[in-house]
Amino acid sequence: MYKTQSNRDLALELQSQIPYLRPSIHARRANIVVKFQDLYGFTVEGNVDDVNILNEVREKVREQGRVWWALEASKGANWYLQPQVVSISQGIALKSSLKLSTLANAITLKRLIRKGIPPVLRPKVWFSLSGAAKKKSTVPDSYYNDLIKAVEDKVTPATRQIDHDLPRTFPGHPWLDTPEGHATLRRVLVGYSFRDSDVGYCQGLNYVAALLLLVMKTEEDAFWMLAVLLENVLVNDCYTTNLSGCHVEQRVFKDLLVKQCPRIAAHLEALEFDVSLVATEWFLCLFSKSLPSETTLRVWDVLFYEGAKVLFHTALAIFKMKENELLLSHHVGDVINILQKTTHHLFDPEELLTVAFDKIGSMTTNTISKQRKKQEPAVMAELDQRLRRLNTLKMDDK
Amino acid sequence: MATTGNKNINAKLVLLGDVGAGKSSLVLRFVKGQFVEFQESTIGAAFFSQTLAVNDATVKFEIWDTAGQERYHSLAPMYYRGAAAAIIVYDITNHASFERAKKWVQELQAQGNPSMVMALAGNKADLLDARKVTAEEAQAYAQEHGLFFMETSAKTASNVNDIFYEIAKRLPRVQPAANPSGMVLMDRPAERTGGASCCA
């Protein structure tokens, strides 16, 4: 079941195998579009400038690794995994146990994570800081294997949909799109569908789980990351029956856009452009279908540490970055093209995250929770109304 | 530009239908002339645009290809709001998908724009051996509910361009064209200039 070590270290392997691409001056002049594999094995199409940016990003990832090693050397191994450091940054510290050095570590860690976790450390750091390790520790060690064995041959609407989606999840990826990749992803998704039957399986989770598999060392850890994400990190009911949580997030997002980017919001409103048309996919796939892989994972680095507010920071930043262009657009199609082009070419995570955290006003998890509470009744009423309307239609039909 | 005397129409078009009926494949065939066996599953909706020239106008379709899974249907109003046209897709080898298509027709007729042009597409028409929905049954349903009906195959391209052309022709024209017989010269793939004459 776990003989996939070679594949699991895909990122590292690819990193060492792929030589720097040195585009010739002719290619540059012709602005030729080239295809290449990124750090996580995804095929990317881009121009010569994109290739150069990706090379720079690789170099930055290495530099960031050196920063982490240096800190480890001075603060001790796994300093960032101490429970107190974790809890302080998440705002749940006990005053009595507060030591200055712990506080300093927490501040360092927050800054460090926003600058990116080196890919080799991601499995360990994510697993611990997200709360997945804690979640796993509350059940017997054999939980995952028992679950997988117990549900192996069961057929449900969820498993049927999962089977339908396996070959449609990042098709062409050198590991995910192999029989072994499909089987592994299937086990994680099917396992989760039985863990939480309210969620079962929702399209979109296939992309999230696939990326988790590429990052984490084992499928079991990927499973726990998925669990902590759905049960603790994201808003409730994001993926259940009528996606009510997702509707709530979209309304909160629209309000935030009005507050943080009023000119853009007003312009888009005049064009009758509903930002949810594009943002729904961002929130449900946690950007994995829109941003390049390393950029997505940089967002996830912060997501697992600081919580779901990070999704709002990121989404707002994408609009903010293109403010001038968006204000000049006259048409819904133009707006979508600008946003799609932007997200697909965000090869430099720094470009996005700098805007997300320095140019977007700060939000606390608390204010977001309050906003959600405010929106919930309207969402429920709207969903309920639609359901009743449809039911009336059925009655008329009889 | 050569479109002087002709009208340019922007039309929002939405594709609705059961999961795996082939909505994305139809769009991909129409917009890019391609077919892939495993199309990435659509989350929320995907946006495409494509311009067609019909005899009296140039129609720019803004296409919303929606996700098929049941729980995504709560998002549908956002995509069909203000749409000028809809293609409701089912899979001819799957009767449940035809039943689901009927529900979409109901919902659109109750909620959508009353002048919306609606097409019913029985997709995967290349899989004749596995057929579960007859063309007669679908045709009768379409007629009764004021839709037009075509069986399509995104795989072989059969009737794919045709269904979009037919929609383009049926879209309401605000005013009569000044030059109905004029030729429109546009930069677009040659295969589409042949109009509705594709391999049926």
Automatic annotation (TrEMBL), chain A:
InterPro entries: Rab-GAP-TBC_dom, Rab-GAP_TBC_sf, Rab_GAP_TBC_domain. Residues 116-307 form the Rab-GAP TBC domain. SMART domains: TBC. It comes from the Eukaryota. SUPFAM superfamilies: Ypt/Rab-GAP domain of gyp1p (SSF47923). GO terms for molecular function: GTPase activator activity; small GTPase binding. Gene3D superfamilies: putative rabgap domain of human tbc1 domain family member 14 like domains (1.10.8.270), Ypt/Rab-GAP domain of gyp1p, domain 1 (1.10.10.750), Ypt/Rab-GAP domain of gyp1p, domain 3 (1.10.472.80). Pfam families: RabGAP-TBC (PF00566). This is Rab-GAP TBC domain-containing protein. It comes from Acer yangbiense.
Automatic annotation (TrEMBL), chain B:
The keyword GTP-binding applies. GO terms for molecular function: GTP binding; GTPase activity. It is a lipid-anchor. It is found in: Endosome membrane; Prevacuolar compartment membrane. It comes from the Eukaryota. One of its GO terms (biological process) is vacuolar transport. Its main location: membrane. Gene3D superfamilies: P-loop containing nucleotide triphosphate hydrolases (3.40.50.300). InterPro entries: P-loop_NTPase, Small_GTP-bd, Small_GTPase. The keyword GTP-binding applies. One of its GO terms (cellular component) is endosome membrane. Pfam families: Ras (PF00071). Belongs to the small GTPase superfamily. Rab family. This is Uncharacterized protein. It comes from Acer yangbiense.
